[in-house]
Write the structure tokens for this entry.
Amino acid sequence: MKLSGIDEKTTFIRETIPIIKVPPILDIGQDFTKRELQLIQKFYYQLQNHIETKNLNNFYRNIKTLKIEENNSIYLHSDSGEIKVNGIYYPSTNEIRISKLYSKKPYILSHELFHMSSSISDLKNDYDFSGFCQSSEENQIGSGLDEGYTELLNARFFNLPSQLTAYRYELVVASLIEEIVGKKEMQTLYFNSDLFNLVKTLEFYSNLREIKLFLINIDYLLDYGHNNIPFSNNKEYLTIAFDEVNKFLINSYINKLKISLQNNTIMPIEASIKLSFFIKKINKLKENKIGIDKKYIDDNLKEYIKDKVKVLKIKI
Ligand SMILES: [Zn+2]
């Protein structure tokens, strides 16, 4: 089975991102409809409110030449086959395609505009960097975390009610990674397409092998654990991947709390409240993923948490 071990080749994380700077001046390209233009303006306003100008280089560069196209139906190639999607962004051509059915829904286009604002293509080496995802012809890593965080920002910046959000499982996972990394730093890394330094930050609380496995598992759960994929032929691995993601999150967060307790930057009571809150979110993750053995997940996690919390010497 593909995911039974870490394959160094498929988990290669590139360090060097090409930087093409442009002045931070809003220069919107041509050929947009009135509705698209209004949404781009609204999107820009929200970005300015939330994100420092120095992290909007990808936005200012890409918006100049962005193309938006409406299609009857859009299909995405994934490991599990062709998936019908509502919208898609191609970093190498700087192009958004929106399904005609969804072209009037602003939250579909704004999701794709987040991808545009966090993407850069290394055309010479045929590599795309998009938020926390890196891809070439042969390799791709980080798409699960990237979709989750993209939708988290979409929901946060535009106050989306939860029933309108996509990638709900990946969104919560991304929010828990944000708790570990810190909101400001995570946003900065995202808009600079910097998976490499996200991994470096996570290495304070875990190791490289575990981090890569976490990213692969999230990618796998994105590809195979979705409602619109009728059947996964690796059902058992779905549960294993889900369980491993839970453990990675808990373990990294506990290591973070441990460091904070040692440095006296947090009180034990505060640590126990934070950890309880974090675990509550982990327990809710299973509500948003189909095809997993929930009882196995629950039993396994309970034991794991009990064991790990002992190290902290706090009560939860
Ligand atoms: Zn997306």
Q: What stands out?
A: The beta strands are 67-71, 74-78, 81-85, 87-90, 95-99, 119-122, 127-130, 133-135, 140-141. Residues 235-262 form the longest helix (28 residues). The chain has two domains: 24-194, 203-316. DSSP finds eleven helices and nine strands in the chain.
